[in-house]
């Protein structure tokens, strides 16, 4: 079922790009802007957020079929995500996204043909990201539902954007905090704000709110999403450290080189010996490091049991999340779809 929903979302994404260009004539305003936005947002992706939005709605809806505009409205979450990815890549100085050049890298390539230009691809990408945010708000309005329900769901979208931005801000500040002073709760706070809320809890509860679900059901769904989101971020950290380039599109040393404060690093530091603690401190202190030291860091993560601990946390959080679904009065088909989808995305 979730593959069917994904295909419908994918089809709607390509349709929306054409219709918004027709409505606002973006290609006439700036062909460079439209061409690069279209290429970036239409790349292959998991589409987790719009899929969960649709599951949240269809699971509680009393209507026999999806209302007009549901899948277009779901795109609001994908476009919000794309907007944040553009800004994340600039902050992280990352030239790759989904195995292809990041948006600012694409725009830098375009600008390289004119040496007299005094602004950068990063400058243009920030503005393009802002356009994607506006597109997301435009897309949300497409669904045909009761105005009060739409307003309540839209407030959840705004809250997701607010919390995600705050999470990014907190994470950047955490990056200058000595690794020895960071707690597991610090790590989970970032996971909750940057991933769990806007990737899982908000899409699910937005959909349920739009369908008219009760407050108690929405809260159960929110709790489910927060637990699943933590588990997903831990999995993402594992892939970022141990994944293969041909599958992820980036080096598995990137997260370590960028000194990201993850559950893996936190656990490794707190269970490492004195010499290995110094290696971790050096890398987390953003000091210049050799490739050999980055590889050594990965070995420390394995040897201290950090990898095993993280994998067990995924299982624990997933079990807790599943327990939350037992109290959900969703249509059985969509409850099963939700559980199948969750199991699939947590596979390592």
Structural write-up:
The structure is a single chain. With 348 residues, the chain is mainly alpha-helical. It has 2 domains: 1-144, Farnesyl Diphosphate Synthase; 149-348, Farnesyl Diphosphate Synthase (Orthogonal Bundle). The protein contains 17 helices and 2 strands. It has helices at 2-24, 26-29, 31-41, 48-60, 70-92, 103-111, 121-140, 147-174, 184-211, 215-242, 245-248, 254-257, 263-270, 274-284, 291-303, 306-325, 332-345, and strands at 96-97, 100-101. The chain has a two-stranded antiparallel ribbon. Strand 1 (96-97) and strand 2 form a beta hairpin.
Explain the layout of strands and helices:
Elements: H1 2-24, H2 26-29, H3 31-41, H4 48-60, H5 70-92, E1 96-97, E2 100-101, H6 103-111, H7 121-140, H8 147-174, H9 184-211, H10 215-242, H11 245-248, H12 254-257, H13 263-270, H14 274-284, H15 291-303, H16 306-325, H17 332-345
Antiparallel strand pairs: 1-2
